[in-house]
Design brief:
This protein has about 250 residues and is an alpha/beta fold. The protein is built from 7 helices and 10 strands. Strands 6-7-8-3-9-10 form a 6-stranded mixed sheet, sandwiched between helices. A 4-stranded antiparallel sheet has the order 2-1-4-5, with helices on one face.
Length: about 250
């Protein structure tokens, strides 16, 4: 059984005097122990799709199944890492990380135990009492990652998590995510990442799903069978890049 399954998802939003179709006929699944990337041009509904999976947005039609059961309301088995960090400036690192646990009624002792575990895992030791204004962009995103992981989700959703970072920091965090993913230290069963960066998708994911734009439809589902760590300069990597890039360019025409 797939961990996540989307069946004929459609999303329509009202816009002034008309309705705009954002997603149309989205069907795919994510298996356990699978890292899937969604790529496509701006406006293809990638971020909207993540919010539907998380239960934050109800689709106009279609069905989201998690472990075979139809999703109704918020999906408590997923966490999201956002592009823009979303940290609360009046809370320190530990408080930002434990915010979701506090909302669930977890005791202070248990919140701190879990927070320090994930602070250690994502490399935030020594910054437990720092405030967001005192952190670099990369450190802020580490807080965002720890905040998502501390909820111990089965599915991690990432919405262009590295796009606001400089190239060096982004690559370091990609390596950190892959290290954690393969470490066996997390509760995670699967990862679903939205990105506009094709190279990033091929470097990190087991599958790359390509969406068209206006409205978003699946036009490609590419399995990445390269061994990790992956060589961006290899012929195989370049061929996959060209294949996916041609799909994205075609859909923009």
């Amino acid at each position: 059984m797939a961990l996540l399954e989307l069946r004929n998802i459609k999303q329509i939003f009202p816009l002034k005097q008309r309705k705009v179709a954002v997603l149309d006929g989205i069907n795919f699944s994510v298996d356990k122990d699978e890292f899937v990337a969604l790529v496509g041009p701006s406006g293809c509904g990638k971020s909207t799709l993540l919010r539907i999976i998380a239960g934050l947005v109800k689709p106009s039609s279609g069905e989201v199944l998690f472990k075979g059961k139809t999703l109704k309301g918020i999906n408590s088995n997923v966490s999201i890492v956002f592009q823009t960090f979303g940290l609360l400036p009046w809370l320190d690192v530990t408080e930002n990380i434990t915010l979701g646990l506090e909302a669930r009624g977890v005791s202070l002792k248990e919140r701190l135990r879990k927070a320090f575990k994930y602070i250690d895992l994502v490399g935030l030791e020594g910054f437990e009492e720092a405030y967001p204004r005192e952190l670099s962009g990369g450190m802020k995103q580490r807080v965002g990652i720890a905040r998502a992981l501390v909820m111990e989700p089965e599915l991690l959703l990432m919405d262009e998590p590295f796009s606001a970072l400089d190239a060096f920091t982004a690559q370091n965090l990609r390596e950190e995510i892959l290290r954690l993913w393969s470490s066996g230290k997390l509760s995670l069963k699967s990862i679903l990442m939205v990105t506009h960066n094709i190279e990033e998708a091929i470097y990190m994911a087991d599958r790359v799903i390509v969406l068209s734009t206006h409205p978003g439809r699946i036009i490609g589902d590419v399995h990445i069978e390269l061994k990790r760590p992956r060589d961006r300069n290899s012929v195989e990597f370049t061929e996959l890049y060209d294949k996916i890039y041609s799909m994205v360019v075609t859909t923009k025409l």
